[in-house]
Give the backbone structure.
Amino acid sequence: MAGGGPLGAIYEIGTLVALDEVLRGFDVTNCGVYVGVSSGSFIAAGLANGLTPRAMYQMFIESEAADDPFEPEVLMRPALKEIARRLALLPHLLKSSAQDYLTFSRSRGFVESYWQLAHALPTGIFDNSRIDEYLTGLFSTPGRTNDFRKLRRKLFLVATDLDSAEAVPFGAPGWDDVPIARAVVASAALPGLFPPVEIGGRHYVDGALVKTLHASVALREGAKLLLCINPLVPFNADAAVRHTHGRRISLVEGGLPTVLSQTFRAIIYSRMRTGMGRYSHDFPDADVVLFEPRRDDAEMFFANVFNYSERRRLSEHAYQRTRAELRRRYTELRPILARHGVTIDKAALADEVRTLSRPDGTIGRHRTVRRAGSAGQLDHTLDRLEALLRVRTERASG
């Protein structure tokens, strides 16, 4: 499970629900090994603890209907302690910078002398301690555990040691005494957004800094069938035009955020593809199957990576796109999965009105409360129509 901020986790949940519905002979909560990186560590840790994809959908997406809801505020709480600690350094840094400038003004200049003020900038703007508290509570309930050593399945959550830039697989021998919740927070500590996480006197940040998937961790454990989910791919504007027959999108029109997003995605995607190419050589007896958005998927690319407010729509999008991908790749995937006793349920895959929130066509519990009577029936009918039109459009375009 790769990373991608809240959007990545949302995409992975939608994808996992789709896979769980149509794959027979494969239990996503009973795999031999799980590997999570960055936001993917949330999902991997949940699966290893026996949380089904639909349970996580209720928990993270339909949070108001869940027993253990994950509220968006947990992610967006300002890191007040870190900000205050850094601001306390400002008077000393100002004095030191002024002295440096007055002493070496001819040789260094203003910018060089005052550059040390950057030490007053916080290492992250959001507080990840609330995430730690939430996950600790979640994994401490009956039937779950916050201890790698007590899991019935192998779980590896990869973070990056900030001082050595080396990947650390929490859950491996020597790293399995760290609480699972703490390892998740370390793996997902994206620099600039969340402060580095201290564990054993070392500081750790996002695991994606070194590799995108870290799939080799699972392959070295003997995995023979490895399903990989990568939420972030670079956008191909030319392919989008061919797919939608619309106006070509110039990414430069989106300004700096869009340019940076494309750059970041291109870097991690290229790195991942290089790694995927090596797996077939280094592990010839293993089958690695990758699921990711299409590169012409404008909805996934232009969605804010840290947008949590549209989680229902985006998870439904991921769910439907994964189902469409399974239909498109059926001939390719069928023999690969069959080698491991896994089949694709064509009947479940062919159901054109199935949606993420209502797999059996019934009105979900949370909607029954809020939209009763004719309003609820209309809401249900519109959802079914939208799903049908989406499937028809995808089949017609390719």
Remarks:
- Residues 255-282 form the longest helix (28 residues).
- Residues 130 and 240 are 39 Å apart (CA to CA).
- The radius of gyration is 23 Å.
